[in-house]
Amino acid sequence: MAALAFGLCLVVAFVALSSGKSALPPPLVIWHGMGDTCCNPFSMGAIKKMVERKIPGIYVLSLMIGNSMAEDLKNSFFLNANHQVEQVCEQLSKDINLQDGYNAMGFSQGGQFLRAVAQRCPYPPMLNLISFGGQHQGVFGIPQCPGESSHICDWIRKVLNTGAYSKAVQEHLVQAQYWHDPLNEELYRNSSIFLADINQERYLNESYRKNLMALKTFVLVKFLKDSMVDPADSEWFGFYRPGQDKEIMPLQESLIYTEDRLGLREMDKAGQLVFLASDGNHLQFSESWFCSNILPYLQ
Ligand SMILES: *[C@@H]1O[C@H](CO)[C@@H](O)[C@H](O)[C@H]1NC(C)=O
Ligand SMILES: *[C@@H]1O[C@H](CO)[C@@H](O)[C@H](O)[C@H]1NC(C)=O
């Protein structure tokens, strides 16, 4: 299995090297998840290295939000997602390596943040967006926490359960900004300063739709044994049917799709929307899985 995948990767790299006029593969931007950083050698650092090994000559930017890894980690909990997206848009617009377009890979909440970048900031153009375990319909629970952050998560969970939609919590707690309470849909729509906006649940911003549809492909990876995202279906834009928290409503039945508020239905029909599954816990995949499923989008 590994040997097969390795062979596949080699072929891909060879094509990239021998494809005539533009020698450089498209650059790649990575956005890490909650409780993680740009450069952790066991997470994004390893992903960056792997991609650089598979695609010789590629420029990979793993986003650091803030001026140090410590700030980056803290900001993944406490820096308003709208401000994070704004900062990233500015950084991307100034990066000369990205001006002809770039691919993007978002991990966990980095998935919905990069979608916001695609919707709000069309220049430079994002080519393919790959979301690994992103919570595109939000979460109604954070059952487990990644890495060393479990004490922060215990605290966050309490805050979210008591007042996720209060103005103060919305402004300062990132996870509140994509907290989606299916028992209080109207309150969520009124109060969510990030997710309800990018999902066009308050009003329609035509440019969000147009910009998202400009992606070549939007790849959504769901982790079938995910124990950190509730519900994991959110990774494919599914969510609890309004008014209860047991039964899941798939994307195709939701208003976002039936009213085509984001252009997803049109993208789906045109083959621009790709649903992938990895049979592991949150963000768990093998190198050979990555090689055969993701690498083709990064060429
Ligand atoms: C729509 O989104 C764009 C990009 O974020 C923004 O500049 C514009 O003001 C928004 N339009 C409305 C009507 O909110
Ligand atoms: C949501 O906002 C509307 C319009 O401002 C208001 O009438 C309604 O009561 C609000 N609902 C909730 C649950 O906050």
Automatic annotation (TrEMBL):
**What keywords are annotated for this sequence in UniProt?**
Disulfide bond, Endoplasmic reticulum, Glycoprotein, Golgi apparatus, Hydrolase, Lysosome, Secreted, Signal
Q: Where in the cell is it found?
A: Endoplasmic reticulum; Golgi apparatus; Lysosome; Secreted
Q: Which reaction does it catalyse?
A: S-hexadecanoyl-N-acetylcysteamine + H2O = N-acetylcysteamine + hexadecanoate + H(+); S-hexadecanoyl-L-cysteinyl-[protein] + H2O = L-cysteinyl-[protein] + hexadecanoate + H(+); hexadecanoyl-CoA + H2O = hexadecanoate + CoA + H(+); S-hexadecanoyl-N-acetylcysteine methyl ester + H2O = N-acetylcysteine methyl ester + hexadecanoate + H(+)
EC?
Answer: 3.1.2.2, 3.1.2.22
Asked whether the UniProt record includes Disulfide bond among its keywords, one would answer yes
The highest taxon in the source lineage is Eukaryota
Q: Which residues form the signal peptide?
A: 1-23
Q: What Gene3D superfamilies does this protein's entry cite?
A: alpha/beta hydrolase (3.40.50.1820)
- Please list the GO biological process terms of this entry: receptor-mediated endocytosis
| GO CC, alphabetical | endoplasmic reticulum; extracellular region; Golgi apparatus; lysosome
Q: InterPro entries from the xrefs?
A: AB_hydrolase_fold, Palm_thioest
Q: Which GO terms describe its molecular function?
A: palmitoyl-(protein) hydrolase activity
> Which protein family is it in?
Belongs to the palmitoyl-protein thioesterase family.
Its name, as the record gives it, is: Palmitoyl-protein thioesterase 1
Q: Which lineage do the record's taxonomy fields give for this organism?
A: Eukaryota, Metazoa, Chordata, Craniata, Vertebrata
